[in-house]
């Protein structure tokens, strides 16, 4: 698909259009050029985008793919009408109409779930969760661990911080994270503050080779980064988690999204409607 | 829609199914019960989910809505077949088939874009961006501001931290953030370290009433949280950004997603293919 552009046109942020469009496009080889056009909420703005789509169609000699999430009929019809020389994939309409029939109600043509979200209690919980996760990053504070939904454990640089921030941002989950350090391995015990909360602990481990590589980027040539030391820490951490009955997974070949999804599936925090 | 359950069934994390499904459901009143079933990648697992869907259909007396992203034909056909008593919305198939015709190639039925992502350079850039944003939170470090893609400015608690983490996590953008503090207002000048980077600065402001409310939750009754002080800081910060030609918006009624989308649209960082 060389010379093929993809438009994401939305009356909101376009996040739905882009997330969805990307997962469709991942089914095909090659990476097309992305053109994002968020906040298209008036006919005038829609006509500007239409002109742009048609110009790209002429320049590239192939019709651009256009993923749209446009709720307002007047705005949508400008892009979906006969003047448009793109291939329009209307990801709302394809499913909203059958659901109206199923539910026996008309859809309310609401624009932008993210905007309404800004005032909701759910949104405020997300912001609170982000602040909580930042304050409880890397064992900074053992205070309020009782109010954590999840506590991530693992050796330094095993992926705890990005995962806990993702859990907070995406799911409003209060995720503390707690490092396992050489002192813990000498004592052969999980850190004492965690003892009351084992049921909400989840461990991350990582291949020692990969760990050594990551640590070497930070502190080249240090004992901390040495492969031998990484092997020791990972082996001890895994043994400790196994003895304590803490679930864990290896982050080596997994993305943050996959790690977070697995944790939620296994821990099933009370606050998440699962 | 009381007593109506919605399933999100995916062979990956289910993030696409859920993001998309939620934006569809937001067009209708009431909030249905969510059932997430990620990592359904074998026929056996699919049959378990099928049994669950049918049981819910019987219990609730209404067919559940089932959003699926299942790439493997054998797995998908178990859920989409005649035995399923849910209303299945197959969000990949509806668009993949027309695109195969358009591109003139078969789709590669690839499972899980997030999994492949874990090894890509794009993914590593995201992780690096998260680390950068954490290290440059709240003006902690003026080092490496040259390598920031975006620098967020604003008074304390105007929404800089969640926004910069979101930019990093979602878009791999290195977003530093820098607080505007009373000393800056007395000097009537933006902090000196920012001077070389005005073109990548973006300001966040906030209604003083809302700011006072947020700050009072942290430090009740303090001068920091007093409405009069919040009015002063916001007025000075806005005047300073206006004088320096820095773009800004009010975070008061906007979600993180909307703020981030606006920033990317206006700043257009080099690293983002826009």
Automatic annotation (TrEMBL), chains A, B:
GO MF term (any one): ADP binding
EC identifiers of the protein: 2.7.11.33, 2.7.4.28
Q: Does the keyword Nucleotide-binding apply?
A: yes
- Record flagged with keyword Glycosyltransferase: no
Its keywords, alphabetically, are:
Kinase, Nucleotide-binding, Pyruvate, Serine/threonine-protein kinase, Transferase
Q: What class of enzyme is it?
A: transferase
Q: Which domain of life is it from?
A: Bacteria
Catalyzed reactions per annotation:
[pyruvate, water dikinase] + ADP = [pyruvate, water dikinase]-phosphate + AMP + H(+); [pyruvate, water dikinase]-phosphate + phosphate + H(+) = [pyruvate, water dikinase] + diphosphate
**Residues binding ADP:** 154-161
Family named by the database record: Belongs to the pyruvate, phosphate/water dikinase regulatory protein family. PSRP subfamily.
The record ties this protein, via PANTHER family, to: PYRUVATE, PHOSPHATE DIKINASE REGULATORY PROTEIN 1, CHLOROPLASTIC
Q: What does this protein do?
A: Bifunctional serine/threonine kinase and phosphorylase involved in the regulation of the phosphoenolpyruvate synthase (PEPS) by catalyzing its phosphorylation/dephosphorylation.
Q: In its UniProt entry, what is this protein called? A: Putative phosphoenolpyruvate synthase regulatory protein
């Amino acid at each position: 698909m060389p010379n093929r552009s993809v438009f994401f046109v939305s009356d909101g942020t376009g996040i739905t259009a882009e997330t969805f469009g990307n997962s469709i496009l991942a089914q095909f080889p090659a990476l097309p050029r992305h053109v994002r056009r968020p906040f298209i909420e008036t006919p005038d703005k829609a006509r500007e985008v239409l002109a742009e789509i048609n110009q790209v169609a002429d320049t590239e000699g192939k019709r651009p793919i256009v993923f749209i999430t446009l709720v307002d009929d007047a705005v949508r019809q400008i892009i979906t009408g006969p003047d448009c020389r793109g291939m329009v994939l209307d990801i709302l309409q394809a499913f909203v109409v059958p659901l109206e029939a199923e539910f026996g109600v008309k859809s309310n043509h609401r624009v932008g779930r993210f905007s309404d979200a800004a005032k909701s209690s759910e949104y405020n919980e997300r912001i609170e969760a982000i602040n909580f996760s930042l304050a409880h990053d890397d064992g900074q504070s053992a205070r309020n661990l009782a109010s954590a939904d999840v506590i991530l454990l693992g050796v330094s640089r095993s992926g705890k911080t990005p995962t806990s921030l993702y859990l907070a941002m995406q799911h409003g989950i209060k995720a503390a994270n707690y490092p396992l350090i050489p002192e813990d391995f000498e004592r052969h015990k999980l850190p004492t503050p965690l003892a009351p909360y084992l049921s909400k602990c989840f461990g991350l481990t990582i291949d020692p080779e990969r760990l050594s590589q990551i640590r070497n980027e930070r502190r080249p040539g240090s004992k901390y980064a040495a492969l031998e030391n990484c092997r020791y820490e990972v082996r001890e951490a895994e043994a400790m988690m196994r003895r304590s009955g803490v679930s864990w997974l290896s982050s080596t070949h997994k993305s943050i999204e996959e790690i977070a999804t697995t944790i939620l599936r296994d821990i099933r925090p009370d606050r998440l409607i699962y």
